[in-house]
Design a protein that fits this description.
single chain; mainly alpha; 75% helix
Length: 118
């Protein structure tokens, strides 16, 4: 959970620095740390699935979490690297935040639809 919090906090901070045109967003550690943290997040999700013998194809919530992490990473890459315009970068940045909260919801409800069964 600390990696998820670190990833999101740094992601938001990087966006604020980047879109606020602050030079702190160009620091080497600011560009490297997210890759390390996101790799740990993805590896831990896949490791947990393997350890529990819980295959994403059989467990919808796990597939949603892994897919969400991949979408979060891709949107982050679009926001900070691949986006061709400021508008697209901002849209990807906000989109990644929405995906992060979706992943959080899936983790709390254990449901890809975010609905808790009674």
């Amino acid at each position: 959970m600390s990696c998820a919090l670190a990833s999101f906090s740094l992601f938001v901070l990087r966006g604020l620095w980047r879109f606020g045109s602050l030079t702190a967003s160009e620091a080497h550690w600011v560009r490297v740390a997210p890759h390390v943290i996101d790799t740990v997040l993805l590896a831990s999700a896949l490791g947990l699935a393997a350890n529990l013998v819980a295959y994403p194809a059989l467990h919808g919530f796990l597939a949603a979490k892994v897919g969400g992490v991949i979408a979060y990473i891709l949107l982050g890459m679009t926001a900070f690297r691949w986006g061709t315009s400021r508008g697209r970068r901002l849209a990807a940045w906000f989109g990644a935040q929405v995906v992060f909260f979706y992943i959080l919801g899936v983790a709390l409800t254990k449901s890809p639809t975010l609905l808790v069964a009674n």
